[in-house]
Amino acid sequence: MTAPVTPDQIELLIAGYVLCDLSPEEAAEFEQLLRDNPDLWDAVAEAQAALEQTFSVEEQAPPAYLKPSILSAAQVLQQAVIPSDRETIASPANPDNPAIQAANSNVIPLRRWQRGMGAAAAVLIAGLGISNIVLWQSLQTLQAARRTTTTDPLVFTLERTPLTPTPNASVRVMVDPSDLEATLDIKNLPPLAEGEVYVLWTVVKPNAPVTTDDKDAILTQVFRVDEQGQFSQRIAVPPVFRDRGLVQAVAVTIEDAKAPQKHLAKPILIQRI
C-alpha cells in the first residue's frame, strides 16, 4: 500500500512541476494526485504566479555591499594562505644541513599548494560576484521590458464555436494585470455529466518563456456551473497577462474531471487575439 503523501511533499511536487524539474516517477505521482484532487490545480496556478512575480520588484542599483564583500573575502583568503614577509625572508643558519633541506622539500610544495588553492578560491569568489552582477543586470533588462506592458484591465468575451453546447452561452473574462486576478463570468452553459468539467485555458505564443502543454496552453481554471448554467468567481491568472503580446487566445473546453490537464478536447468557446 502506498504511503499517504504529506502536505510538505505535495508542495515540493507542485514546485517541481512549475520548475519543470520532476523525475518521471515524481511526475507520475503528481499526475495521480491531480486526478484524485483536481483542486490542486489552483495551487499550481498560485505557484506559477508566485514564481514569475519574483521578477516584479522595483528597479534598483546593485546592492552596495556586493563589490566590497567580494574584495574583502578575497583579501582575507589571500592573507590566510600566503606566507608572511618574515617567513619568506628568513633563512636557516645552515642551509646545507640535510635535515633542513629535507624539511624544506616538504614545506615548499605545501606552500605552493596553499597559494594555488587561495588563487582558485579567489577566482571562484570573483566569479560568483560577477554571476550576481550579471543576474542583476538581466533582471533590470526584464524590468525595462515590462515597463512597456499594459496595466489596464483586459476584457475577453469568448465567441461560440460549432461545439458550443447552447446558442446563448456566454463567457467573459476581465483580467487585472496589476494583481494577476480576473473575474470569470459564465452564463447559459449547461451543467455537465458526472466526471466532466469545464476548463479555462490561456493560450500563449509559441516559445513564450512559461510552462505550457503541447498546445501552448496554460490551465487557468477548472470549474462547474450551477443548475442555471452560471458561474462567477475571482480567479488567479498566469503572469503572461502582464504582457499582452504573449497571450494568443483564451478558450474553454470540456475535459475529463480526473485529468483536465491532458487538454484532449477542442474549444467550445474561444477568443483569439
CATH class descriptor of the largest domain = Mainly Beta
Low-confidence stretches: 84-92, 105-120, 145-150
Strand content: 15-25%
Shape: globular
Strand and helix order: HHHHHHEEEEEEEEE
The percent of residues in helical segments reads: 25-40%
Q: How many helical stretches?
A: 6
Spatial separation of the terminal alpha carbons: 49 Å
Q: Kindly name the structural category.
A: alpha+beta
Strand adjacency order, main sheet: 2-9-8-5-6
Q: What would you say the CATH architecture of the largest domain is?
A: Sandwich
- Tell me the number of structural domains: 2
Number of strands: 9
Q: Please compute the radius of gyration using only Cα atoms.
A: 30 Å
Biggest β-sheet description: 5 strands, antiparallel
Mean pLDDT across all residues, rounded? 75
CATH structural fold name of the largest domain: Immunoglobulin-like
